[in-house]
Amino acid sequence: MKTHDVAIVGGGPIGGYVAGEIAQAGYDVVVFEEHKQAGAPRKCAGLVTPRTLDFFSFSTSNIIQNEIYGANIHSPSGKTLSIGGDKLHAYAIDRPRLDAAIISRAGTGGADVLFDHNVLTAQRATNGVVVTSKHKNTTKQIICNLVIGADGAHSKIRDIFHFPQPAETLIGMGAEVTNTRLDPKYVELFVGNKVAPGFFAWVIPITEDGTKARIGLCTLTTVNQSVKYYFSHLFKHRLVSPFLQKAKVTNYIAGSIPLGLLKKTVDTNVMLVGDAAAQVKPTSGGGVYTGLSCARYCSAVAVEALSKKIFTNQFLKKYQKAWVDDLGRELLWGMRFRTIFKNLTDRHLDKYFEKINDEKILEAVNEHGDIDYPSKLIMPLLKKTPSLLKLLVHYKNMAF
Prior knowledge:
Blueprint: E1 2-9, H1 13-24, E2 29-33, E3 47-48, E4 64-68, E5 70-74, E6 80-84, E7 90-93, H2 95-108, E8 112-115, E9 118-125, E10 128-135, E11 138-149, H3 156-160, E12 168-178, E13 186-190, E14 201-205, E15 212-219, H4 227-234, E16 248-259, E17 266-267, E18 270-272, H5 288-308, H6 313-342, H7 346-356, H8 359-368, H9 378-384, H10 388-394
Parallel strand pairs: 1-2, 1-11, 2-8, 5-13, 11-18
Antiparallel strand pairs: 3-7, 4-7, 5-6, 9-10, 10-11, 12-15, 12-16, 13-14, 14-15, 17-18
Helix pairs in contact: 1-2, 1-5, 5-6
């Protein structure tokens, strides 16, 4: 068996970033990616904040497709809240191109990237962890000091080593479409139990003239209808269809989103990061910024462990503490708001749209709203609308 310092399972943006950081520190890294190329199949709506791209030293100009300045949020009855509009809030990006750039950086830095390698098992041995993968009809075994699970929402590494499971997993479906007529500076969001029960649907313009878009939605796994049913009805829904009247689907997108703070993301010789660790924003389902933030801590602690040759659970807990100290409060508050949101009826949603559609409240949203850190909006909103506190109190005993 070939020996490596670190084996990373999953060659997406988070696994690729960790691989690049550890390889550039001078350690022997192997990446197992089950797909044949980076970024395929597409699983992401591709909307990120500008600070997300600050993680990368390479140019991202060819990755940015469109600049987003605001959002129009549509209630079940058709009320619309328009927020933002005065400054850049997000980029629509080409995720496959970003993934490819990240994994290319890892390879250039010295990581051994193995595409089309499906990890079958991983098992602790006396001198590390033995990882078994399959490539076509051939199995391969390596041994490493650290195995890092960056293998997504349905992580094998998380399951093999008996880590906690996410509190819930959303199912998503979407598509890229042409022939749209959109305001290119605004995303359109739709809530309600008839359009996307338990979450929301979106239309994101991805060109500067608004003629192409990514559309999609996520739903709970417990709803009566399939996500495919709700997706097909987007084109017929009275609020969504005006944006998609002549739209033509060019390719489909599908994926899962794990939610809920994991109390454990390390064990002896093992670490989890990204979607595998449910490091995802519960309010938006976005995991690129949070995953990359946690990837920094993961790679830093991994490098320290390798330099000291200490791979115990107790030592690797430095990573757990670091990412929880940074993002734990945000993810916890996100799950609290998610619990409130998914228990609201369409009537309640319309009621709160009326309450929030106030000039002073919208000013607070525009001033303090942050896609990556939505909890920053809590106090300013409560100051403007103290009655919203009743909503928090009403649901305080739910979810946890």
